[in-house]
Each structure stands twice: as C-alpha cells, then as structure tokens.
Amino acid sequence: MIKLNAVDQKYGGTQILWDLNLSIKKGSRTCIMGRNGVGKTTLLKVIMGMLPISSGSLTINDLSMEKSTVELRPEIGVGYVPQGRHIFPQLTVEENLKISLNCKRQKSKTIPEYIYELFPVLKEMLHRRGGDLSGGQQQQLAIARALVLNPSILILDEPNEGIQPNIVQLIRDVLLKLNKEHGMTIVLVEQKLPFARAVGEEFVLMEKGQVISTGPMTQLTDELVGKYLAV
Ligand SMILES: Nc1ncnc2c1ncn2[C@@H]1O[C@H](COP(=O)(O)OP(=O)(O)OP(=O)(O)O)[C@@H](O)[C@H]1O
Q1: Do the Cβ atoms of 4 and 50 come closer than 8 Å?
Q2: How many A from CA of 177 to the centre of ligand 1?
Q3: Nearest C-alpha to atom 30 of ligand 1 is from which residue?
Q4: Record's NCBIfam families (predicted)?
Q5: Is the CB of residue 9 below 6 angstroms from any atom belonging to ligand 1?
Q6: What does pTM read for this prediction?
Q7: 154 within ligand 1 shell (Cβ under 6 A)
Q8: Ranges under pLDDT 70 in the chain
C-alpha cells in the first residue's frame, strides 16, 4: 500500500504538488493520468524518494518514507522504470541487468530466468551494448532491470512513449501477467487512453499538482476524459 497525505512539493520556489492525497492498494493496477505538466512524473519521483517533500506524509507498506532516500526503495521491494528509460548505453544488456543485483535485498546473484521468458529478445541480445538496442528493446531492458530484484511494487513512467505497437502490446501483456500471476502492484503514468483502460483497473486523475478524481477504470467517464485529459 502506498499512501500520500497532504503532500506539498516544491522545486526551489515553485510549488508543483499541492495538498496531494492518494492511496494505492496492494495488488492493484493503478494508472495515473492528466495533461502535460500537471505533476505526474513529480508524483512518481516523490514516491521513489528522488524528490523531497516540503510537507505531508508518505508511507509505503506502512513504513514512513518522508525522510528516506531513493536507495531504500529497492530494499523494500519497489522497482522503478523512469521516463526515458535511462539504461546504460555503454554496458551490455547483461551488465545492465546485473547492476540491480548489487542491491542488498538481492540474495541471489543470478538474473531470474522468468525475465527472459517475459522478454525473449533480451536473451538473444545479452552481449549487445544497451545503446545499440532499438527504443522498444531498450524499454524492455529498462523494465527487466527493475524486475531483477523481484519487486512487489512496480512503478513505470510512460513506458510506451515512442514505442511501436507490437512492443506496446507486449508491455501490456507483461504488466497484466506480473499483476495477475505474481501479485505485483502496478503503478503507471500513462497518457494513452486505450492502454490505460487495458492495463489500469483504477484511475487517478491529476490537475495542477493535485489528485482531483480516483476510482475504478470503468468509472472513467467521457465527461472526465473531456474535462481533464483531452487536449
Ligand atoms: N527540475 C525541475 N525544476 C523546476 N521545475 C520542474 C522540474 N521538473 C519539472 N518541473 C516542473 O514541474 C511541473 C510538473 O512536471 P512533471 O514532469 O511532473 O509533469 P507531468 O505531468 O509528468 O508532465 P508530462 O506529461 O509532460 O511528462 C512542470 O511545470 C515542470 O515544468
């Protein structure tokens, strides 16, 4: 369970998140939506401990996280796939994956086989440099790298940005499988409505740094879409 209560966040003097309240259930698939610049990425970075909060509280699995840094997230089972992927271009696919194994939580020092079952292309390209992969392959690598630590919560920031349709489908299927078969909590920022509807079972709508509506995806009405998502 991830819980934010009355969270404010500022970049220098500019306040981005305002009195933000949010509760994400264990085992759910939650899609955070809203127009460009409303604070979706900032919210994920706050959850990840990459940005400090000015006031309010953040708990993950009932642990108080306001003061804890990003390094603690893998230790408590939170995986993150950042916007833009951020893989290491000079390292091979295998080296990119093995970097996660340095985390203390990880007792085994081998890459779990199920990762290659989810993303077979990575096994074929194990010794290729990350920077030489296509955008879609890099995105698979970014997700796989987060999965190496067997997280119980996986947080993804626009995993489909600039990705071709067949890889978008693969990512959709992988996220559904991780949730349904591994019980993983999935939290994603997604702009594209069809993908959000296919993967999310809960929606969170943001506007001007606040959560203004939440509920089951089936209740994301055309009126809400028109008001808060349509450009
Ligand atoms: N490092 C920063 N310093 C100052 N302001 C920032 C910084 N990063 C983001 N912002 C501002 O914070 C606001 C929210 O940005 P954020 O990236 O969280 O929005 P978003 O909803 O994820 O947008 P998008 O859909 O375009 O990715 C924007 O006005 C942005 O310009």
Answers
A1: no
A2: 31
A3: 37
A4: urea_trans_UrtE
A5: no
A6: 0.94
A7: no
A8: 104-107
